[in-house]
Write a structure and sequence with these properties.
It is a single chain. The protein is mostly beta strands and about 325 residues long. It has one domain: Neuraminidase (6 Propeller), CATH 2.120.10.10. Helices cover about 0% and strands about 40% of the residues. The strands form five sheets. Strands 13-14-15-16-20 form a five-stranded mixed β-sheet, with no helix packed on it. The chain has a four-stranded antiparallel β-sheet with strand order 1-2-3-4, with no helix packed on it. A hairpin with an 8-residue loop joins strand 14 (about 215-220) and strand 15 (about 230-235). The two termini are about 30 Å apart.
Length: about 325
């Protein structure tokens, strides 16, 4: 469903998915540099051989939508897990877009891989496998996100998962970067984080107009003994080579997950994050959760030199005059 805010009120929700006799889910929305609106989603639940990742678009501000959906994935079986088919979308210059998702494999549904598809402003290039669990022998590469900078460099981010038989279940947060015209086999990989405690099932990334890549993810709270996780934020100012210290977002002692960074970073206002938190302190993966908003001022990035100390936390204070947290 799609709804648009005009500054005063939201429009009546409109169905935009097609081929949706079965469940359509895991959508992501983006506006390209030509002001076209795009929504990517999957129809997990249609059953093999009819499960795909699709994308639809609107060229008139969301009033009318595609009469046909473009199929981005080749696989006809997204898999039985509800975690499969998680889609993300990012816009670059000249009408360019990149869609990314993870999917179970026909040879082993428990092995999840990352796929990407590039749009050059005219057509989609086709699905490309960008990860390989066989080479690294891990059970999954999953929960991806993607950012495209002002020079059309593509930054793919995802989590890895260990195998159940691993003595030490080490998991990683991976960044894969390439130029627009490079093959993914030429991409540069960088490990941004590793740990043994958390599934880290959440990522979000945005590139701003200065080429800063804003990345947030879920990880374990190192000093906590109850298993709670939190959302952490980090960024590079040099094209992904050097990353800032990881800054924790949100209230202490509350389990966090499923983060989204607003797709437009406004220098005069900052970087906006939304994520879920447990209602009760010190409870991991609580069934009752709340949604939180955190704003990080852009001056936090621009005023930071290599010698400056980096705050280790941005916290929502109850009495702060924040309309999202009265």
């Amino acid at each position: 469903m799609y709804s648009k805010f005009n500054g005063v009120s939201w429009s009546t929700p409109k169905k935009v998915s097609l081929y949706d006799s079965k469940a359509c889910e895991e959508p992501s929305i983006e506006v390209d540099s030509k002001n076209n609106i795009w929504v990517v989603y999957n129809n997990d639940g249609a059953g093999s051989p009819n499960e795909f990742v699709f994308i639809v678009s609107s060229s008139d501000g969301g009033n009318t939508w595609s009469s046909t959906a473009t199929q981005l994935s080749k696989s006809r079986n997204i898999g039985t897990s509800i975690s499969n088919g998680r889609c993300a979308l990012s816009a670059g210059p000249n009408g360019r877009l990149v869609a990314i998702w993870h999917d179970g494999q026909s040879w082993n549904q428990d092995r999840r891989e990352i796929f990407a598809n590039q749009f050059d402003g005219t057509s989609w290039a086709g699905e490309v496998l960008i990860s390989d669990t066989k080479f690294s022998d891990r059970s999954a590469n999953w929960y991806p996100t993607v950012a495209v900078d002002k020079n059309s460099n593509i930054y793919a981010f995802y989590h890895t998962n260990d195998k159940p038989t691993d003595a030490v279940p080490t998991r990683y947060v991976i960044m894969q970067k390439k130029t627009w015209d490079q093959n993914w086999t030429q991409s540069v990989k960088k490990v941004l984080h590793s740990e043994t405690a958390c599934d880290m099932l959440s990522t979000s990334a945005v590139a701003d107009e200065d080429g800063v890549i804003h990345f947030a993810f879920r990880k374990d709270v190192p000093v906590d003994m109850t298993g709670i996780d939190a959302i952490y934020y980090t960024f590079p100012k040099d094209g992904g080579n050097t990353w800032s210290n990881q800054t924790r977002l949100g209230r202490q002692n509350h389990d966090g997950g499923y983060v989204t960074i607003a797709s437009r970073v406004r220098k005069q206002y900052g970087i906006d994050f939304a994520f879920r938190k447990s209602k009760t302190p010190f409870i991991n993966d609580e069934s009752i959760t709340t949604v939180h908003h955190v704003n990080v001022p852009y001056s936090f990035i621009t005023n930071l030199s290599k010698e400056d100390p980096i705050p280790n936390q941005f916290e929502v204070i109850t009495n702060y005059p924040n309309p999202f947290n009265p």
